[in-house]
TrEMBL record:
<dbReference type="InterPro" id="IPR006680">
    <property type="entry name" value="Amidohydro-rel"/>
</dbReference>
<dbReference type="InterPro" id="IPR057744">
    <property type="entry name" value="OTAase-like"/>
</dbReference>
<dbReference type="InterPro" id="IPR051781">
    <property type="entry name" value="Metallo-dep_Hydrolase"/>
</dbReference>
<protein>
    <submittedName>
        <fullName>Amidohydrolase family protein</fullName>
    </submittedName>
</protein>
<dbReference type="InterPro" id="IPR032466">
    <property type="entry name" value="Metal_Hydrolase"/>
</dbReference>
<dbReference type="Pfam" id="PF01979">
    <property type="entry name" value="Amidohydro_1"/>
</dbReference>
<keyword id="KW-0378">Hydrolase</keyword>
<dbReference type="GO" id="GO:0016810">
    <property type="term" value="F:hydrolase activity, acting on carbon-nitrogen (but not peptide) bonds"/>
</dbReference>
<dbReference type="InterPro" id="IPR011059">
    <property type="entry name" value="Metal-dep_hydrolase_composite"/>
</dbReference>
<feature type="domain" description="Amidohydrolase-related">
    <location>
        <begin position="54"/>
        <end position="400"/>
    </location>
</feature>
Length: 410
């Protein structure tokens, strides 16, 4: 069993928001075996002196779409699944090399791409997938233009979702995703930016339909993630048992109360609105999509600040599409304008791990956690820019005890 001992490390405690200097961390068989100042080097172990650099857990992005190599989501569903899978494998490798050792895909990724990563066929973050996101007719993943009456929800179409209606219809759709091994079920609770016919301020699915989906997820010991912008849409979802709200740009005080009451999670994705405003047209967004983006762009930071002040569980999300995904780390800088660095880092580590049901296994450097580790130059608690410049500041990436990137000598 291979063993690596990191010495002279500044270990970032994500729960406490503090760095302990002079630490030694032993990695054995893909897990962290010991942490402390007096951990001995086992016979035959590789010893790596970090020279005081920061050792921290791998990052977790709770909202990515690995299939979305274009922002033209309507056109994506007509592309070759083989082509989209190859593009996804490239994006997964690039995501890992940004320091994200785990991601959650709430719409598009399936058991095939999950298994390819898990089996080591491609390099990428460990992947928590939801399969196809569920939408009502005319909802956020109904990508038909107004003049088209037919749609193809075949499993092999590489689009991000499927359309289902009625309590019986949504139950079957949820069961179909869960039978493939989905870690959660994603539903559309409101309109969205990239869809062609719905309004941002609409609510989607009836309460009976939402409750039916939640029932199916809970029966499978899984949870529901809900796309929502307005307080009205958010609150309907939380009251019906939705576990995480994606985006939430237009939430209000009543929403915050429900988050706290239900111990639910909020996954803001602020960077995607900034990048869509700047370069969305280049990557396939229509003028109508860009107009909807403007409705939620500025409100997102205020919503984040309100939720943070109240103590809502916050998780890191990016939700970038196409070539804009290269800006994935900029979410740190955007959040850092209104939230202390320690709390921003928690959203991408320990809190994200709790949403994924992996508390104590991901997002922390503690015994029996998976050895997903980053070595960075600098103190991210003082400067989040340490995390946004991987080419110069990210010196080592380890995933499951295996070194994926090693720049310690450069």
């Amino acid at each position: 069993m291979s063993e690596i001992l990191f010495t002279n490390a500044g270990v970032l405690d994500t729960a406490a928001g503090a760095i302990a200097a002079g630490q030694r961390v032993l990695v054995r068989g893909g897990e962290i075996a010991a942490v402390g100042t007096d951990v001995a080097a086992p016979a035959g172990a590789r010893v790596v002196d970090l020279g005081g650099r920061t050792l921290m857990p791998g990052l977790i992005d709770c909202h990515v779409h690995v299939n979305a190599h274009t922002a033209d989501l309507a056109g994506l569903g007509d592309q070759s699944p083989a082509y989209v899978a190859v593009k996804a494998s490239i994006e997964l490798r690039e995501t890992l090399h940004r320091g994200f050792t785990t991601v959650r895909d709430p719409g598009g990724a399936d058991f095939g791409i999950h298994d390819a990563v898990a089996e080591g066929l491609i390099d990428g973050p460990r992947l928590f997938f939801g399969g196809k996101a569920l939408s009502q007719t005319g909802g956020h993943v109904d990508m038909r233009p107004r003049g088209r009456s037919v749609h193809d929800d075949h499993r092999c179409c590489p689009g991000l979702g499927l359309v289902c209606d009625g309590v019986d219809g949504v139950r079957k759709a949820a069961r179909e995703q869960l039978r493939t091994g989905a870690h959660h079920v994603k539903i559309m609770l409101s309109g969205g930016v990239a869809s062609p016919t719905d309004r941002i301020d609409s609510t989607q699915f009836s309460l009976d339909e939402i409750r039916a989906i939640v029932d199916e997820a809970q029966a499978a010991n899984r949870y529901v993630a809900g796309h929502a912008y307005t307080a009205r849409a958010i609150n309907r979802g939380l009251e019906a048992g939705v576990r995480s709200i994606e985006h939430g740009n237009l939430l209000d005080e009543s929403s915050v109360e429900l988050f706290l009451e239900h111990d639910a999670f909020l996954v803001p994705t602020l960077v995607t609105y900034h990048r869509m405003a700047a370069e969305g047209a280049e990557y396939g967004l229509s003028e109508a999509n860009l107009a909807k983006n403007a409705l939620v762009l500025d409100a997102g930071l205020q919503a984040l600040e309100l939720a943070h002040r109240a103590g809502v569980n916050l998780c890191y999300g990016s939700d970038l599409l196409g070539g804009m995904r290269r800006h994935q780390l900029q979410e740190f800088a955007i959040r850092g304008a209104v939230i202390p660095p320690a709390d921003v880092i928690r959203s991408a580590t320990v809190t994200a791990a709790r949403l994924l049901g992996e508390e104590g296994r991901l997002g922390q450097i503690v015994p029996r956690a998976l050895a997903d580790l980053l070595v960075v130059d600098g103190d991210p608690l003082e400067d989040l820019g340490v995390l946004t410049d991987p080419d110069t500041r990210l010196k080592l990436i380890m995933q499951g005890g295996e070194v994926k990137v090693d720049r310690l000598s450069t």
